[in-house]
Structure formats: C-alpha cells, structure tokens
Amino acid sequence: MSVALYTRISQDKTGERAGVERQAKECRELADRRGLTITHEYSDNDVSAYSGKRRDGFDALLRAVSTGEVDRVLVWHPDRLYRRSADLEKLINLVEQHNIKIVTVTAGDFDLNTATGRAVARTLVAWSGFEVEQKTDRQKSAYRQRAERGGWPFAHRPFGYQRVNGEIVQVPDEAAVLRDILSRYYEKLEPRHAIMRDLNQRGILTPRRKPWGIIQLRDVLTNDRYGGVVKHGDTVLDVKPSWEPIVDRDVWLGWRSRAAKRKRKSTFSSAKYLLTGIARCDVCGAVCFVKHRADGGRSYFCSDLGCVQRSVPAVDDLVERLVIGRLSMPDASQVFAPRNEDTADISREIEAKQARLDDMAALVADGTLSADAVRAEAKPLREQMERLRAVLAERQARATIPAELFQQHAGEAWDSLPLIRKRAVVSAIMRVSIGRQANPRIFDPEAVRIEWVSDAK
Ligand SMILES: [Zn+2]
C-alpha cells in the first residue's frame, strides 16, 4: 500500500489552525495510529484551491494516483484536496478506475467508490463556496462598551428602582415586593401565573400604574440587573453595577442557571433516533418518524401520507458524515457561532399565548367559563405555540453546538456527544429532506436533500 500525504495552505481566516506544518503533523500522527506508512508527499503553499489557480502538488498527486503509484491519500480535511467541483470530479473519475481511499484527520475516511462517499464530498464542495457573514464589529463594540460601564439605561423606570439626581436608587416598597416574588419564583418554583394573580389581587401596580400582565412579570423575573449582573448578549461581564442589587449576585446566577436547566429539559424530547421529527418528507413536507420494519430494520417514514421511507442507518450515516465534514471546515466556528439576540421576540410570543391559555384555565377554574367554551379557542392557540416552540428550539439549538466540535477533531468530538446534543447540532446546521427514489431497493444518497442553514434569516 502506498500512502500519499497532501497538504495545502489556504487563505482561510483561521490561518494558524490550517497551516501546512500543523496539517502535516496531524496527518503523520494519524498515519502512525493507523499503521500507515507515508510513501509520497505533495504540498501546495498559499494557493487557494477555490480560485482555480495552478496547483503543482495537486497535479502531481493526480498523476501518481492515475499511474497506480498511490492508493491512499491522506489529507487534513477533504477541502484541502478539492474546493472546486472540477477538482472533485477529476478525483472521482480517477477513483472509479483505481480503488483509492481518502483518509482525513478531521472528517474521517472518504470512500469515493461509494455513492454516500461521493454525495458527502459533493455537498462539502458546494458548502465550501459560501462566504462567512460578518456582523458589523462597530455595532457590537458599541453595545459592549455601554454594558462595560455598568450602566442601566432606561427611558421608563424599572419596577423597584428610580433615578434620583442621576443616581439609580431602590424604591423600598417595590424592592420588598421584588425580593418576595423572586424567591417565590426561583426557590419555591411558584408558577408565574399564580404570582401575577397575587400581585393584582393585592393592588400592586407596574411602574406605569397598570395591573400586571404575564409578559411584564416575566421581564421582571428574568431581569439580570436585579441580581447586579451586567451582561453583553449572553456573556456575563465582570463589571460592578452602578446600582444596589435586589439579591446577591451569586444567588441570582445560581437561580438563573437552575431555571435554564429546567427549561432545557422540557424543550427536548427523548427521541431515540438522530432524525426523528427532524427529517422531513420531500414530497409533502411532513416530519418523518421511525417505523420498525417487518425484517427487523428501521426506516424513517413520512408521518403524514407515508410518501417516503428510508433506512435509518443509511440516512444517519450520510447526515453524520456531512455534519462532521462541515464542522471541521476552518470557517465553521465563525459560521455557526451562537447568536444571542434573536430568540427574544419568539419567546415573547410564546409567553403571550401561554398567558392567554393560563387566563382561560383560570376562568374555567373560577367557574366563569365552561371547559367546553374554552376548548375551541385553546386548540389553535396550542397549535400556534407548538409551531413557535419548534422555531425557538431550532434557534436555541444553534447555541448548543458544543465548542469542542470546533476545537478538536470534529469526528471524535461528534462520536462522544449524546444523541440529544447530536440532534440539536443537526437541527442547527441543516435541513434534511427525504425524497422518493427511482429504485427503492438501493439507498441513493442523492435522494436525501440537504440544505445548509445559512445565517441569512
Ligand atoms: Zn410525505
């Protein structure tokens, strides 16, 4: 067996990680682990494979493969080899004539002799053409600076505080109410709805002299400033607040993190398969569930009309290879970095609908309304909430892509993730649709449509 090592430096922004030296070192380590002896070495320096410029090393490699001198190619990531489809197709042609395998450090092995291997390679090539969307740095730093000064800019005073001669000071009555309701909510886990009713029954008004609604109460219960915490996005800044907090900072952070854990638990179901409820039917758009076949195998199955069904292991294998391949690209940490600001509006909408449901439930409990009377109205509300929750879960999922997937070899990090995290990652980066196959007996990876979830909303 002859193994060729191919390295290429690209013009990626994460230059250091992808530098030729590092690529070569990691490739050699992998060769050692796998008992492969490197017999040929090729390298192209500082040339973008995407630009289509001449690559002498790559051409020499292709020649060595075509003469049968080499039957394994070792690269750091598949995109080192081919970033343009033309390069890939050249390689696929060669592979069809000579049985060669591609071994990569970051994304596992690629067998271009199989349909799945080729589909994965083609999809990765398509993806590597995307440009990274950069947020305007200026906008970011403006928010950060304001937060770092420990300020609390408000136009209407928040419950519990007022501004006196430019200073933010507590309103004693309201501060006492705050201490009471925060501990009831976080310590005794009293439902928001009950707290809201209690406040309104006691005649306690919002700063705008109105009765409490569930949204106003939610905003109060989750306002980090009451815990003296200054944040930028989801990052807690180590800044002293310019006001006296209602509760101790450590107590507050403990409350918030426990609440987040409780919420996370209820957000994700305990699915047993990677793509249950995630993959969609490409014919009718319904989600796919898993069906146990008579032969003992399992298939993803269109849950609505039964338009498509496809082997679970085959689809999972394809999707997992694509996830690993995509996340091990040098730009992945930039493309998939969590964004913090875009769930507030959806959360609000869900809260509002929940509040209406709660109100209706309370009216039924009071005997004001009959259960039958609210049922008709509650059903569409619940359905809308389900849809909103799905969107929210998807957006939150992006924030759950574990950092280790970017920091070490995505393949190994991926394998060690629990299924629930894998599902979150898949939903965060791609849409999977299962289409009809011409020949239902042989798995056709091209009949599984993968769309990359880009940053564009
Ligand atoms: Zn269908």
Helix content: 40-55%
Structural class by secondary-structure content: alpha/beta
What small ligands are held by the chains?
zinc ion
Count of the separate structural domains = 3
Quantity of strands, as a count: 15
Rg from C-alpha positions?
A: 28 Å
Low-confidence stretches: 12-17, 130-142
Main sheet strand line-up: 2-1-3-4-5
Which word captures the global form?
elongated
Biggest sheet details = 5 strands, mixed
Q: Termini, distance in Å?
A: 48 Å
Number of helices: 17
Name the beta content range. 5-15%
Overall mean pLDDT stands at: 79
Short summary of the structure?
Helix content is 46%, strand content 14%.
Lay out the secondary structure.
Blueprint: E1 3-8, H1 20-34, E2 38-44, H2 56-66, E3 72-75, H3 78-81, H4 85-97, E4 101-104, E5 108-110, H5 115-127, H6 137-148, E6 161-164, E7 167-170, H7 172-186, H8 192-201, H9 214-221, E8 230-232, E9 235-237, H10 249-267, E10 280-281, E11 288-292, E12 298-302, E13 309-311, H11 312-327, H12 332-335, H13 344-366, H14 371-398, H15 404-407, H16 410-415, H17 419-429, E14 430-434, E15 448-452
The structure holds zinc ion.
Zinc ion binds at residues 281, 283-284, 286, 302, 304-305, 307.
Keywords:
Rossmann fold, 15 strands, 14% strand, 457 residues, 46% helix, single chain, Recombinase family protein, Resolvase-like_N_sf, DNA_bind_recomb_sf, SSR_resolvase, 3 domains, binds zinc ion, 3-stranded mixed β-sheet, alpha/beta, 5-stranded mixed β-sheet, Hect, E3 ligase catalytic domain fold
